[in-house]
Design a protein that fits this description.
This protein has 307 residues and is α/β, with parallel strands linked by helices. The chain is built from 13 helices and eleven strands. The strands form two sheets. A nine-stranded mixed beta sheet has the order 1-4-5-7-6-8-9-10-11, with helices on both faces. A two-stranded antiparallel sheet has the order 2-3.
Length: 307
Amino acid sequence: MSRVLTNYENRVLVVKKGDGVSEHESVWSDLQGVAFSQGYLDAGGVRTRYLHAGDESKPVLVLLHGSGGHAEAYVRNLEAHAEHFSTWSIDMLGHGYTDKPGHPLEVSHYIAHLMAFFDAIGADRVHLSGESLGGWVASRAALDHPDRIDRLVLNTAGGSQADPEVMRRIITLSMAAVEAPTWETVQARIKWLMADKSKDYDDIVASRQRIYRQPGFVNAMRDIMALQDPEIRARNLLGPKEYGAITAPTLVVWTSDDPTADVTEGRRIASMIPGARFEVMPGCGHWPQYEDPKTFNRLHLDFLLGR
């Protein structure tokens, strides 16, 4: 396995101004004290960015972010999981600093890249956990490649329905954030993910703003938004037949305030997967792993460790 290590790209420190008490937030401080690496590796010809923490002799855990996202979605989870797993959070195909293939992205494209990533890190089998789009891809990976998935976590996962209003909202917020990546447009995209709208999420906003300002990212986002097109989405959706064929032990995590679907949808997904465990996290939106990492890490680790 060939890797190119780089300096961490998002060392942003901001001071939030409020009632006279300064609160410091940064992606860097989330990782401060954590033994981790950032780098790039070749996954089937795709230059792929990753964050990694944990001894590589331990079982492998791969974390997948959502649509338009990046590896920092899991900065608050790396430390806890690195105690037990060789933990990888990646920029998925066409996202973050990973290569952009230049065509509309469907689930099969993400799956091919993911399998190439497994090969690149020398992992025959992995625990796979995905949020939103990442959960959609993880579900399909467990279905198409059951020999490579040990345990599966679907975190506010996409891929089970096509809600026109939600799809339009995702397109509108995402394209606004890349076409004019101001602090306000990027922050609006981030706040849509969260239950608590009173926070500014400066660290993640700064990280994503830098990504969205990359040359060519408007076209990259159009390719990412392909799955919000009704026709393309329809041929990629998962139904009872697909979910029912998943054999990996599965945890479905939903939240009280998910902006894409209510708890009923999460429960429905879990009901279609044989033996799936279902958990609801209160007070969280689409990113429970970030908004309430303590609870998420506990639920996640209990399941992955077979407790």
